[in-house]
Amino acid sequence: MEWQPSLEVSIVNLSQLRYAITSHLRQSSISSVDIKYYVELANELIELDGANNIKSLSLNVTALAAQLTNCEVKAQQYRLIAELLLDIRSKQPSRPFECLNITCSDCGEKAEYSYSFFRYECKSCNTRVRAHRGDHWPMGQLANSTISYCRRFAHRLFEDNWVTYYGSRKVAYQHLSSITGVPINELHFGVLINNTLDAHRVNMVLSAFNPRRAA
């Protein structure tokens, strides 16, 4: 099938940026990714490159991506998004992403990726973190079974109580963001809960706060 360009007009706002990326991913047969995070990283790169839109991006955007953070995982993600933006600019499909290189913060060993369970695992520390199926990007940081359970429990509380009451995840996340003080683009249970103290605090908020009283 002939490749169809996903960008016909200049990008001037986030909704158009999201549309361009979503269309491009669909035509590249890449799905099951955190599109909101893609748009966030892409927007940062476009602004830092000094471009007005995807069409005016410089080829140096990939080099710029490597300088934005000292975080190993996020640096890789910036680079991949930079390459994706250049693919959109040149109207070329993107290749499916490989798994990232993730180092365990506890032991320093490289985590292995399980294509059967879609997760990263550190065999030495017995920690793991789930990943998105489309790009193999982790949904947070490596954690042991106790923390993983706490994340799932917190997410279930949120889905059963908050999302059910507010009627949509977007609105529920907006309210949770206002209470926790965590920006909505960073509000993910894999990021919020990385130890037992985090789990206690988050679950206290989810259990004690009554959405009906706040409405």
From TrEMBL:
This is Transposase. It holds the Pfam family DUF3268. It comes from the Bacteria.
